[in-house]
């Protein structure tokens, strides 16, 4: 019922399993959307709110970073965007009475799902050292507490300022400015766990860490390869773009260990064929690859292209690239047998893929976490770049690299300077504009921040959004690390596990969400965001804020900065809080591509940021050309009797926010503690469908980690590869198991054994991670 949270902990993990589906969206998606939205918001608010999602005068969907088409539908959102909106626009409230009734230790025993279902945070809350309950606190006192702890540090580098990817450009710019004026580059963000590998690989090879395609490029492509991505669940509006591409004659190759329903067939709820008919078949060729086999696959395809007369775009290679000879030598050495072993693919499939590659003049490769969260993620993505460069598929219409971002403004936050390794030119510009000397030493990323907290080298942890302890790897290690902090602070919309696993002192600072009206002294404000394709546009909330005491993210940063930096700061924090246009004027002066920001963002639909490779085939790399690279081919080697586990998302979650316990397309209902295994692997391990077992990860230092009580599901995944949901399985991912160069946790390749089949779910010792 709208407005009423569940009372007892509703998580009765008792999964029901039916056959996986073969199509996404359609009528069931609409029914499901309305049910979840109305539970949280009621009927009237559901209608009013959903009609403003992604409209030119509305707010940017807080779901994913997929761009909006220029010609919009009345309902320009998807099932999962609507769930993200409902989660934020819920009528449920977490009040001081709630905190008085629940000691923190008791909340730490609740599931993440239960915590999230309690509703929106309404008051600043403070947990004093040794106290059992959070208590209401004034904003002034809250800022005093942060200032006390920050000024007590020996060095500003003992503080860590984390950002999740929903934060607006304006808030992100102010937040990094504050952290740097205070004196540190310790600005880890969710990107460190997400597309960092894409950024690392693309910066080195094409000179800019962002994708090179616009929405219309997808529509124009001859061939789209979707590797390591599940758009049916995580970027549902991308299915409309794929459908449009297919209508224009494109072909689609899907590379994935799992047959994902959304990529098989799309029933577009916006047309009659989708609603009543059979929808559109999307995938033409499904390469059911083993986890981590993608680098080997693309390397062999590159060899085969090199071996085909006339297949290489020699003009492009000569004029625009560097390193071709060394790359070609490495690629020619690619070996069929080794590739078949690494990928688990039949030879005919790779030959079929090659024919489609050679038939295409315009190729786009899209990817997400299936490529970025591996030890060899960076060389894998560099091999994708080699693949596109060979046939001149960068910087021409209908072709390019398309890393599909996660959080709705994760790309914009980076553009605004949320990065622990800022470019010197960016720091120079800050210095010139604001007249202070920003720190030059690199700061801590997510994994290094956890180590610093664990080792006592970091003492204050401040988070602008997100759910750090639940999203990060090695749950037990991370929670212990956070508990060592002097102070943990969270600027949040909803209650989550990071509020109840705390340092000695803790603060929860409640903030406005995207959907809400943001009024400041100069009047109603809007904020801006950048989507996955470099489009910047305005976002205006319309709903009344969840409570009268919420502050916007920019206001929180401005007040905190004034309190912490005092008269020493020449930055006009008060003026920034009063009128966000003043922030945008400064962004315009500091960040290239934002000239005339206020004028251009006033245009309906906003503007596109420049991208040298896309716009003019210029490559701002160290060589001044697009770089071919020749890394050694790697793929995971899994010992006898072990499996490789990927940790992924269900259909009813947004990262650590659990909307419900179903994963409709995969046929899982009413439970999340499931492990998907190939029936032949399960048979070899004597694991019947429906049995319960523990997942035990084995790390190279001999240590083991256990996640108990998973229901075995026989599922058509690739051989040797298991899948289970995150965040429940984060406990299995060793902190040191990260991608080379990008340091992203390798959450898609965890070596596990499956132990002790039993008939009933075991007691989970870490209930917070359900
Ligand atoms: N509804 C909803 N939307 C979301 C999110 C959400 O949680 N819920 N999260 C947002 C965020 S932050 C992000 S980053 C994105 C995530 O979007 P995705 O990357 O689609 O998310 P995952 O669930 O991690 O799915 C990984 C996909 O890659 C495949 N895969 C795994 N390993 C490999 C591999 O080695 N090779 C290949 N070829 N495929 C592999 C998996 O089978 C799966 O299909 O979605 C964003 N959008
Ligand atoms: N094992 C494993 N681990 C993973 C992944 C994986 O695939 N496998 N994926 C990784 C990826 S791709 C990512 S991006 C990270 C996600 O890591 P995070 O971004 O840290 O986590 P979220 O679950 O997205 O954060 C949700 C919380 O954000 C807060 N919030 C929501 N909206 C707003 C807002 O507008 N403002 C503010 N201030 N707060 C808000 C709410 O309080 C909510 O509880 O997880 C990573 N962890
Ligand atoms: Mo992400």
TrEMBL record:
GO CC aspect terms: membrane
Keywords: 4Fe-4S, Iron, Iron-sulfur, Metal-binding, Molybdenum, Oxidoreductase
Keyword Iron-sulfur: yes
Molybdopterin oxidoreductase domain boundaries: 120-490
Cofactor(s), by name: [4Fe-4S] cluster; Mo-bis(molybdopterin guanine dinucleotide)
Domain Molybdopterin dinucleotide-binding, chain residue ranges per copy: 643-750
Signal peptide from the UniProt entry: none
Presence of keyword Iron-sulfur: yes
InterPro entries xrefs: Asp_de-COase-like_dom_sf, MopB_CT_YdeP, MoPterin_dinucl-bd_dom, Mopterin_OxRdtase, Mopterin_OxRdtse_a_bac, Prok_molybdopt-oxidoreductase, YdeP_MopB
UniProt GO molecular function: 4 iron, 4 sulfur cluster binding; formate dehydrogenase (NAD+) activity; molybdenum ion binding; molybdopterin cofactor binding
Coiled-coil stretches: none
Gene3D superfamilies: 3.40.50.740, Dimethylsulfoxide Reductase, domain 2
CDD domains per UniProt: MopB_CT_ydeP, MopB_ydeP
NCBIfam families referenced in this protein's UniProt entry, alphabetically: Fdhalpha-like
Membership in a protein family: Belongs to the prokaryotic molybdopterin-containing oxidoreductase family.
PANTHER family per UniProt: PROTEIN YDEP, RESPIRATORY NITRATE REDUCTASE
Full protein name: FdhF/YdeP family oxidoreductase
């Amino acid at each position: 019922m709208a407005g009423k949270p569940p009372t007892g902990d509703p998580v009765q993990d008792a999964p029901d399993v039916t056959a996986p589906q073969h199509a996404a969206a359609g009528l069931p998606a609409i029914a499901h959307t309305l049910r979840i939205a109305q539970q949280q918001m009621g009927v009237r608010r559901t209608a009013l709110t959903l009609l403003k999602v992604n409209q030119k005068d509305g707010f940017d969907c807080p779901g994913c970073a997929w761009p909006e088409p220029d010609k919009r539908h009345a309902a320009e959102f998807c099932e999962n965007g609507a769930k993200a909106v409902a989660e934020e626009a819920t009528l449920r409230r977490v009040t001081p009475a709630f905190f008085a009734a629940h000691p923190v230790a008791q909340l730490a025993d609740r599931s993440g799902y239960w915590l999230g279902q309690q509703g929106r945070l309404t008051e600043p809350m403070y947990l004093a050292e040794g106290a059992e309950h959070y208590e209401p606190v004034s904003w002034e006192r809250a800022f005093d507490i942060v200032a006390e702890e920050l000024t007590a540090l020996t060095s500003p580098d003992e503080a860590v300022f984390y950002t999740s990817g929903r934060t607006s450009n304006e808030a992100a710019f102010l937040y990094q400015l504050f952290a740097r004026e205070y004196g540190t580059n310790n600005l880890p963000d969710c990107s460190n766990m997400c597309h960092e590998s894409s950024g690392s690989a693309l910066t080195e090879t094409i000179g800019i860490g962002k994708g090179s395609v616009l929405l219309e490029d997808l529509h124009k492509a001859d061939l789209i390869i979707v590797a390591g991505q599940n758009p049916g669940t995580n970027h549902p509006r991308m299915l409309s773009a794929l459908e449009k591409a297919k209508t224009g004659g494109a072909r689609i190759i899907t590379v994935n260990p799992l047959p994902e329903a959304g990529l098989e067939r799309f029933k577009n709820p916006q047309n009659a064929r989708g609603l009543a008919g059979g929808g559109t078949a999307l995938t033409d060729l499904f390469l059911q690859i083993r986890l981590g086999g993608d680098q080997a696959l693309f390397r062999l395809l590159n060899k085969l292209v090199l071996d085909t007369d006339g297949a290489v775009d020699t003009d492009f290679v000569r004029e625009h690239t560097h390193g071709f000879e060394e790359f070609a030598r490495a690629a020619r050495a690619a070996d069929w047998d080794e590739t078949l072993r690494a990928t688990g693919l039949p030879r005919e499939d790779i030959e079929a893929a090659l024919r489609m590659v050679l038939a295409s003049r315009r190729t786009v490769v899209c990817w997400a976490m299936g490529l970025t969260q591996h030890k060899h993620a960076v060389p894998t993505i560099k091999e994708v770049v080699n693949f596109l460069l060979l046939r001149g598929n960068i910087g021409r219409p209908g072709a390019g690299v398309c890393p599909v971002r996660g959080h709705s403004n994760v790309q914009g936050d980076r553009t605004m300077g949320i990065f622990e390794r800022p470019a010197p030119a960016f720091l120079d510009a800050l210095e010139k504009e604001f007249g202070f000397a920003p720190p030059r030493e690199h700061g801590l990323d997510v994994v290094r921040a956890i180590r610093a907290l664990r080792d006592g080298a970091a003492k204050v942890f401040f988070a602008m959004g997100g759910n750090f302890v639940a999203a990060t790897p090695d749950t037990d290690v991370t929670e212990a690390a956070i508990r060592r902090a002097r102070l943990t602070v969270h600027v949040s919309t909803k209650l989550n596990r990071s509020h109840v696993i705390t340092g000695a002192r803790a603060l929860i600072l409640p903030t406005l969400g995207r959907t809400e009206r943001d009024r400041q002294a100069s009047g109603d404000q809007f904020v801006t965001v950048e989507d996955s394709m470099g489009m910047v546009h305005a976002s205006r909330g319309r709903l009344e804020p969840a409570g009268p005491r919420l502050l916007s993210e920019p206001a929180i940063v401005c007040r905190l900065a004034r309190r912490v930096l005092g008269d020493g700061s020449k930055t006009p924090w008060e003026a920034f809080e009063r009128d966000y246009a003043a922030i945008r004027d400064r962004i315009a002066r500091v960040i290239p591509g934002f000239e005339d920001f206020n004028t251009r963002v006033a245009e309906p639909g906003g503007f596109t940021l420049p991208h040298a490779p896309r716009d003019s085939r210029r490559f701002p790399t160290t060589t001044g050309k697009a770089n071919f690279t020749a890394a050694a081919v790697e793929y995971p080697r899994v010992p006898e009797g072990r499996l490789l586990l990927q940790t992924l998302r269900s259909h009813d979650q947004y990262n650590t926010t659990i909307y419900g316990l179903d994963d409709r397309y995969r046929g899982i209902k009413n439970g999340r503690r499931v492990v998907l295994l190939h029936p032949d692997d399960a048979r070899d391990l004597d694991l019947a469908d429906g049995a319960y077992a523990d997942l035990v990860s084995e790390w190279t230092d001999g240590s083991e980690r256990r996640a108990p009580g998973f229901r075995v599901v026989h599922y058509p995944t690739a051989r040797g590869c298991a899948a289970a949901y995150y965040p429940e399985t984060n406990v299995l991912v060793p902190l040191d198991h990260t991608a080379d160069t990008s340091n992203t946790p390798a959450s898609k390749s965890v070596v596990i054994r499956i132990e002790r089949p039993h008939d009933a779910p075991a007691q989970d010792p870490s209930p917070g991670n359900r």
